[in-house]
């Protein structure tokens, strides 16, 4: 963030080179902090009045004028000047132009360093709340599918090879769990964000009788930063938020990649809402999953932004260094990117249609019931490794005969394990395989129903 320019400081005897002005300005991107900057300044002015540094009338004049400036910015009637470098000086200059010496008193007891840190914390706090709400909306979209899709079976994969059958709601709730961890991380991050930096001044504090708890209470902070030297350089909370955004982007990328595959003719599992697809400029038949592809692709930006931020702060000495001005653009870009992806993900999830007939017609391929059959042998007393080998041999026979396990004659099963009888067919087939599950958190129908109920309660959907 900007420091005082030569024209505003008595120590300089020359003006800044215009190339430096262009190089150091940040108002082109930090202007979006204007609302939190004004909130922080109003709280600071009110505190200064409470401790007697300002008169109540001066604090009132400052508050009224700052709110008027905010209204002008809201309406697009405020002209930000590059020559004033950043959003803070643009607002302060207008305050001084309108109030004179009263406006000049606002910066008493604070520095640009703690002002910037406070503004960023206020902005990140609001950003966390917005992302959390959109994550909840996406969770709701997944849970909202569960009742209609309750009896649909899907093949689950490892190594992109068919593995075992699962209920569709079990699949949806897997993403709900990932998003729940994202929300938990954000909530934890918010605690460390919600600490008041204002009043630590440049790095050592101030000799003036300010009341930092007063400001913290006015701005809704839960705690007050304890070390003034730490405040100027601390961007941990910002990096932590960027990390949380990166994991969210990763989860969205996984979902988007899966649904891109599922929407292909080769998979033919899902029909995406056409209002979130695009066509081809030359191939008239194409319905391309461009939004999902971009959700997948934009995760790269968010990952890159986190790396930029980590490298930015890795070698900085205490306390403030101008390098930290470079934290805003990757922060804003990551937030904007993830917020936009979440905004589109929820209606795509809610509006997509599973192609039930296509899925069902191929569920018997890939020997999805093999593991269930192996565990049936284990229940009969066969050691796991022995049962694994025996079922592998049966799968080989079925592959050579181009048939399902359920199509093999009883003799084939008994030739490998004499303990098997006609009851072996009771665990074969995808429906029986799913019905056989018992463990907590599994795709067992009763367990999935419990989990759907749990998430409806958590999301207040009942």
Automatic annotation (TrEMBL):
One GO location term (cellular component): cytosol
Example GO biological process: L-arginine biosynthetic process via ornithine
InterPro entries recorded: Arg_succ_lyase_C, Argininosuccinate_lyase, Fumarase/histidase_N, Fumarate_lyase_CS, Fumarate_lyase_fam, Fumarate_lyase_N, L-Aspartase-like
One of the record's GO molecular function terms: argininosuccinate lyase activity
Pfam families: ASL_C2, Lyase_1
Signal peptide span: none
Enzyme Commission code(s) on record: 4.3.2.1
Family of the protein in this entry: Belongs to the lyase 1 family. Argininosuccinate lyase subfamily.
Protein's name according to its UniProt entry: Argininosuccinate lyase
Species in which this protein is naturally found: Blastopirellula retiformator
Gene behind this protein: argH
